[in-house]
Structures are given as structure tokens and as C-alpha cells.
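User: Assemble these into one structure.

Assistant: Restating your components, then the assembled model:
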Amino acid sequence: MIQQYLHAYSYIAIFALVGLLYVVVVLTVSRLLAPHRPSKEKSHPYECGLVPVGEPWGQLNIRYYVFALLFVLFDVETVFMYPWAVVFRDMGWSAFLEMFSFIVIIALGLIYAWKKNVLRWV
Amino acid sequence: MEFTLIIPEIIVFLTATAILILDLILQQEKQKKLLGFAAEAGVILAIAQLVRMFALGQQASSWGLLTIDTFGHVIKIILLVSTGLVILLSVDYFKTIISRKGEYYCLILFSVVGMMFMVSADNFISFFLSLQLTSIPLYILSGIDKNDARSNEAAYKYLMLGMLASVVMLYGMTFIYGFTAAANFEGIARQLTSLDLHENPILLIAMIFIFAGFAFKVAAVPFHFWVPDTYEGAPTPVTSFLATAPKVAGFAALIRLLTIAFSPLIAQWRTLFIILSILSMSVGNIVALSQTNIKRMLGFSSVAHVGYILMAFAIADQMAVSAAIFYLMIYGIVNIGTFAVIASVMRGEDHQIQGLAGLSKRSPLMSLSVAVFMISMIGIPPTPGFWGKFNLFASVVNGGMTWLAVIGIINSIISVYYYINVLRYVYGDQEIGNQQDKQARRPADPAADGLNNIPCLMRLAVVISLALTIIIATYPQPFIELAKAAAVALKTGLWL
């Protein structure tokens, strides 16, 4: 059993090895064949094709975390609602009640945050 | 789906949400005391419902991913009683410290809901979810005093190590699921009987991973490194909560997991728990000897108590498990009582043991309580600690491991030193600490100085713990019976 178990992992080991070799080979070949003529443009850090602005360690406003948190919250809510919508017709009232209480709980949290002025950008 | 079976959980949950709304409605700071009373009312209501369910004595029944049985009722009552005491203690303690009081009570209650579900969980999925519901509020609670750097440190350390422990545990669970294709405890047990451990050594590793997570949650050596810093840094009522409720819930969940899911592997996990227990007892007691901060000292002493309780898992028969449950009851009450005293007499200063010097002259009630609690932790008759240890050691001897009981007793003797040391300061002359110490411990906060103005709710928390301690000391029998009833109710093949 344990033999079989480890045997199954040998594929992963081989795959990892091949992947590693590929990187080494490609980098060496490129180093050997490609011409090396750096310019100011070329040695800029790559930022989605835009001209980089500011320092790489520039600080973000900490208040963005509220948006991140709320985004995750409502994102997850939507993820739950898709499968619920699919089986809603078959399950009837119990499904309705469960989703209702779920949304009420989330809404309570939102109301609390709202009233506590968490959402206000000052 | 019988919703009536989880009414206590629903009550606690609704109380928590009601407190959030109440917090929005109440504008004046003066009225915020109501939040604490609302939380207390919810907890008492839930206890009443649990007692009613216990008295009805229904058969164990399954509710989705949960098993509702007498074992669960008894543990939940212990949990809620300690939560009630912690809330009582918090009302006045946090009057000035934190600004968002609604969140504090809400987080405590959410955590308790998680613990209550954890006690009933009979499935890896429900167990892990409720474990997270328990832990996440606890991480926030230990950092609730946002302006105190040590409180922040406590929260951060607890969060980092706690998440690591959860992940390791989850990893172990996936292995078990991989082998057994079952997530519910009984299904796992059925599959495990047909698997040979010698051909599947990974099963053992998976089990160790799961136990490592548990050992972290209940703070057993070698997974105890978060204990001293978190206990010291967290506000005292939160420390008292951390030291009791999650441990009770963790042990209860561990009992259910071991006696049901892992019952076929008893020979293997017994050895593991012997090692964990000896390490926890010895390290906890020896390190506690040299502590000068009383919260750190109690942290290590709780590690030692965990070691004693883990002895019961090394035996794992019905008698040992009921002794462990009884010990948990006593441990919870005595520990909360001790922290209640610390919270009421040491507000606004660091928690050096010397700070207690001469307490007997200033407050006879508090010093009497400290004396009772400390003697109970040592286990000198006729305190409840004695009954707890007596039952525990007797069950270990009965299980044929006299040598383990001897190690436990040697450890109890070591612990005498640091518990009595506290009393030496409390009842001794004020001159024990040298002059410099006395200068240093002069409290900065004038409100904390006058011991005469200990808020009455804190006093009440101390008195209730003291009363419960004395009741168990004089009539231990009903409580022992309660623990026995809980152990008997477990649906396990181990005790026949």
C-alpha cells in the first residue's frame, strides 16, 4: 500500500525535475544566443506596459482594507447564492428560510459597520 | 431537522446579534452596561434550557452534522457557566478600557456558540467549522485593548500560531478522509478497523497532525509557546476566558474524536498521550516555579493542569473520561475565580506577584478567595481540586499505570511551591518585597488604588466562584455523578 502510495508521487517528482531542467536550459540558451544591448527603456521594471510611477514600496492607504473585506464578504455571498438558486425550486420553503437567515445575518453586519461609520471615507 | 435540539445555541447566537443592534441604539456611554447584562441574560437563558434538556434525559439524537447527547449538555453547561462568570467580570473591567463594548460581548458569545457546536460535532466538517468560529473571535478578543502594545502582541502571536495549528490539523484530516472516504466519526471508525496500521504508516502521521492541532488549542507541551505571552498580554477577563472555555471545549471535542472516530487505534494514541501528558505536567510545573508575573505563572500552571487531564486519555476508559470531565469543571471554576481576583485587585498595574503583598490587610474577602483557589489548585483536601485529582489519579491507577500516577503526584508536589508562594505574599508581611519593589508597584491609576472600591460585579464574580468551589468541596458527589452521566452517554465501543 505505502509502496503504491509513494509510487503515485513519482510522477510529480519527474514532472518537477523536467520543469526545473526546462528553465535552466531555456535561460542558458537565451543567454548564449541573444544579443545583449540594454537601453533605458528596456531596463525599466515591467508594469503591464505602462510607464512606472512612484516608488515600488509606495504606501497604500490602510482604509482600502474595508473595501477588501466587504468585497470578500459579498463575493462569498454570491457564490453561495448560485447553487441555492439552482435547487431552490425543489427545496421550497426550507431553502428560502435558510438563505433568508443567511442574508439577514450578513445585512446585520453591514448595518453595524455602516452605523459605526466604518464605510465613511474621511 | 429538529430545531429544538439546538435551542441553546440559537439563544446564544440571537443574544449576540441582539447585542450588536442594541449597541447601535444605545448612544450614551453610561447605558453600555446594559450590553453586559443582556449577554449575561442570554447565557443564563441558555443554561436554563440546557438544564431542562439534561433533566429530560433524551436519547442521543443526530441533527445534521451534530450529535446532541447528555455528554454535550454537561460540557455546554460548564462552558456557559464559565462564560457567565467572565461576562460578569468584564462589565466593570472594560468600563474605561475599550470603546466598542458591544463588539466585546458579541465576540465572546460568538466564540461560545462555536464551542457549543464543537462539543456536539460528530463530523470533521462541522468540527473544523466550529473550531474556526471558536478561534477567530478569540484572536480578536486577546487584542481587544487596542491601545496596549502587549495586548496587540498577544493577539498577533495567538493568531499566527493558531492559524498554523488549524492548518496542520486540517492537513491531518484530509489524510484521514483520503484513507477512509468518510468524514463522520462513526464512519471513520468503521473504516479504520479494516485498515492495517503497519501497511499505512501515514495514518499515524495524520493522527499526530490532528492531535498537534488539539494540543495547541488546549496548550499542551510542546505546543504551548503562545501561552505565556498571550496570557500576559491579553486583558485579564479575556485571559480568564482563554484559560477555561476553549480548553473545556477542546477536551470535549477530543474525547468525542478519540472515543468514537479513533477508537480502533487506541493502542497507538494512548502512547502519544502518555508522552504529551508527562511533558505538559513537568514543563508546566517546572517553568512556573521561576515566574514573577502572576498571569504568566497561571499560564504555565494551566499547562500543568492540561498535563494532568491528558493522563486520563492515556487510560481512556469510562472512569478516566468521567474523571477528566469532573476535573475540567473544577479547573474552570477555580481558574476563573483566580483571574477574577487578579482582575479586581490589580487593575492598571503590571501583574507582578509582589503586587499582592499585604492583600490580607487590605481586602480579607479577596485574600480568602485567593487562598481557597490556590489550595484547590494544589489539591489539598477538602478542596474541589483534591476531589478532582483524587478521581483522576485513582482512575489512572485503576487503569494499570501506577507509575504515571506517581509522576502526576510528584508534579503536584512541585506545584505546591509556586501556589503557596502567592499566599506568602498575600498573607505575609508587606515587607517581603524590598523597598524598591514597593515603590515600583505603586499604582499609577488612582482608581485602582483603593481596594475598597472594587466594583460590585467583580466582587460578585469572585463570590460566585468561591461559592461554587465551596459547594463542590462539601458535596462533590452530585458533580461526580454529572461527569459520570456525561461519560456514559458517549456512543463508543470502548467501554462495554
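Chain B has one domain: 3-489.
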